[in-house]
Design a protein that fits this description.
Chain lengths: ~350, ~230
Amino acid sequence: MVENMRLSAEIYKKIDNFCLDIKIESNAKRIGILGASGSGKSMTLRSIAGIENPDKGHIEIDGDVLYDSSKRIDLKPQKRNVGYMFQNYALFPTMTVLQNVLCGLKGSKEENLEKAMAMISRMGINGLENRLPGELSGGQQQRVALARIMVYNPRVILLDEPFSALDIYLRDKMQREMFELLEDYKGQTLMVSHSRDELYRFSEEIFVVGNGNIIQSGNTDSIFNHPINVAIAKLTGCKNFAKIKVIDPHKIKIPGWGVTLDLTKEIPQDTTWIGYRAHMFEPVWGDKTTNCVKVRLVAKDELPFETNLYFAPEDGDKANKVDDICWFIQGEMRKTIEQKGMPDYLKISEEKILLLKE
Amino acid sequence: MESITEFLKGLDWSPLYISLKTGIAATIVSFFLGIYAARKVIKMSTRAKSIVDGILTLPMVLPPTVAGFFLLLIFSRRRPIGIFLNDTFNIQVVQTWLGCVIAATVIAFPLMYRNARAAFEQIDANLVHAGRTLGMSEFAIFWKIVIPTAGPGIASGTILTFARAMGEYGATSMLAGNIPGKTGTVSQSIAMVTESGDYVTAGFWVAIVLLLAFLAVFTINMITGKHMKIVKRW
């Protein structure tokens, strides 16, 4: 957290049957917006930059109002000084790298050139100044886009799905590098993505958007460890969901999995679902222990470093048909399973359970 | 050999000058009007777009004589606009070189407009958005980003417009007539000398027109081809 740094955006916009109605307020340095495609997350970013016009709302950065419908303030994008990185980088195709970086700068030519060259070398793309964007690789293009934004010294940087155009091989590397390059940037950065890994790595605070609304917000750990509902848990990568009945504050029944769990912690009365991450099961062979689901293997996906196993719960209530239970295993566990065969039961550990609402 | 020199010496070169002058003037006017119209039309709603686009494209699909007829209706010195232009500004359109330019512009304009529009529509809107968020003025965005990116389309539009304007016949003959040395363009000369049986002169002008037309298309191909190398699209 940095003092005097505060992004606040209240945006309302109706388009056909879709209604964006969100409120974001944060003084975190790196803010993430997580949402499925079509949830309104890009629209939010575009509204902050002034590319899209909200119907009403209020947008403020560090106390400066960029947009306020009730006060009829609506700064042009040119006056907002917001750095926007587009999904496809939107580099100007007929301009060289240097011209791209120079294009937003005002003031004396020599100074601008010096600034641009300094930024280009900071981004590690020196030697490419006179190339055209079409001649660069995806990773290089992204650095040019970042240089073009940073040289302009914006008061906030907006990243719109910045890694989706890169192939997987480059993605991890570019993520690490970009987050490093952003380290010495003084202002706030807001990143929109549908990738939980990206956002988990990047964000201090996350806003989860669903169907045009903020459905949960908080620091990154709390979002990933305590998602409040099924939709959010899904976005954070949770694979297994089941409807439950709370029997008493320490006992829940999962009819679909045919198991009743005894828990030491107290379960809120309004819990209707549980989520359980695919890596968190423990295998049990032979005799049943507590909090175990009897399972039968139905499908298997071998990946280079991981095996995805899909099980049907044997004792599950047939009327309450549920999705297969996913158990993803790696390394040692793969070897163990190879030697001992498929487990008879999957054990659920209490502290890994996500207690959810519909 | 001598007879060729003789022929070229005796030839009235005015049709070539008149055609070139007309073509250049009509191209300059169409260039700016076409780009302006293309930009306006793109921003319109779908319905307004279809109507306005229809009107702007009409001169291209109508027989030029029909366009010429309407132009006569408008600019005739016995009609309100013609009277107004004549009395207030002392401008005459019918049977003048200005008439040549107006006829050629009206007929050739849709080529510029449609090419510019197609080129603009292919531009990624995010390029313009990026320019805005980077603080570039709308003027700079248009001339530094939009026009260069739309370059090949604009260039081929311009050349086609020039070629079409230079060769205009139907509307020109109705509005400006064929006054040798004044409104007698190459295409009108070809018609006239052919009618009088002078196939040598007609053939000469035909060869000139063929050469210019081929040069125009060749230049377009060179420009767009070169550009495709620089800007990798797909």
